[in-house]
Amino acid sequence: VNGQYLIGNLLETSQVTSQLNYYKEFIFSDPQPTEPIDEELAKFNALFGELGSWYNKALDYEYTTPTETMNWEIFSGAFREESNQISDSEISELKSMYPDDVEAIENLHITRLPVERINQVLTQLFGITLADMDDSLVSGLPYLERTDCYYLLGGGSAGAMEFNAVAVECMDDGSVRVYYTADWESTVRCVTLMPHGDGYRILSNGRIE
Q1: Beta strands in 5-132 (DSSP E)
Q2: CA 97 to CA 94: how far, in whole Å?
Q3: 189: CB partners within 8 A, 6+ apart
Q4: 199 and 54 in contact (C-beta within 8 Å)?
């Protein structure tokens, strides 16, 4: 129902309830969780809760719109597994094009980020491509035109976290706000989604301050 919140059992914890009640006056005096509510929360836990999945990784940083910022390390682990080993010719070309980064190129692990694959993931998660993002977001990444790939120097695989959905809000514009906690903190966060086909695209993500 638009404008209503589906309250899960996790809201019985005093700290989470207090935070949500302070920021959003939606907590009913007697939520009476029902099976459909539990199923709704379970649906989003399944979407975002798979450790290391693209949707899980996309919650590792905050944004009011996905075109404003990008944590490229969310791609590093999976792309490292997908990509073939960086060739000697690529390393030589990177050294010649980026002389200030020679030491990093020689000593750090390099992950190949194919533009085509980046666009596939961005479209799946956010409904955007690199063309929709500001050039400054990729200006710090080495790029080879010959391979049509960006290269990430070093870095690990970000975004592997426990996701616990605690409430869902259906908005009048058709979007859905999912309130959740992460494993390393009790602060409540909110990811806003827009239904698309059989799934969802992410509109924003951040803590409730």
Answers
A1: 5-7, 110-114
A2: 5
A3: 59, 179, 180, 181, 182, 205, 206, 207, 208
A4: no
Residue 195 to residue 202: CA distance in whole angstroms: 9
Decide if 168 contacts 31 (C-beta within 8 A).
no
Distance set, CA 150 to CA 69, 100, 131 (Å): 16, 17, 14
Task: Kindly report, residue by residue over 200-209, the tens digit of the pLDDT.
Answer: 999 999 988 6
Percentage of the chain lying above the pLDDT 70 cut: 73
Please choose, from the candidates 83, 87, 155, 85, the residue with its C-alpha nearest in 3D space to the C-alpha of residue 116.
83
Which residue has tokens 């533009």?
115
- What is the phi-psi region of residue 174: left when phi exceeds 0, alpha when psi lies from -120 to 50, beta otherwise? left
Helix (H) or strand (E) holding 163: strand 163-170
